[in-house]
């Protein structure tokens, strides 16, 4: 289990995974613009360890701010149909007998 501070929330873990999923192989560039990312945190809190920058950012802006930025981006990409689509009914293709 990761411990990035005194309290690690589901939202914290979601942010960490989203940043990792949408970072190129150099680990330097986000592949999604317009969202809060590690680069955002580094720009706002240069020289701080990533976990400290994250908690300072959340303290200043709130987790809802981060969530809204990612949600807005997902909706924009969805309108362009540049993201994965899941049918409302779902699928059982991976279900085991």
What report would you give on this structure?
By secondary structure, this protein is mainly α. It has one domain. 49% of the residues lie in helices and 0% in strands. The chain contains four helices and no strands. α2 crosses α3. The mean pLDDT is 78.
- The structural class is mainly alpha
Helix content: 40-55%
N-to-C order of helices and strands:
HHHH
Number of strands: 0
Distance between the termini: 32 Å
Arithmetic mean of pLDDT: 78
Q: Can you tell me the overall shape? A: globular
Integer tally of domains = 1
Alpha-carbon Rg, integer: 16 Å
Number of contiguous helices:
4
The main β sheet shows up as: none
Give the DSSP E fraction (strand runs of 2 or more residues). Answer: under 5%
What ranges have pLDDT less than 50 throughout 5 or more consecutive residues?
none
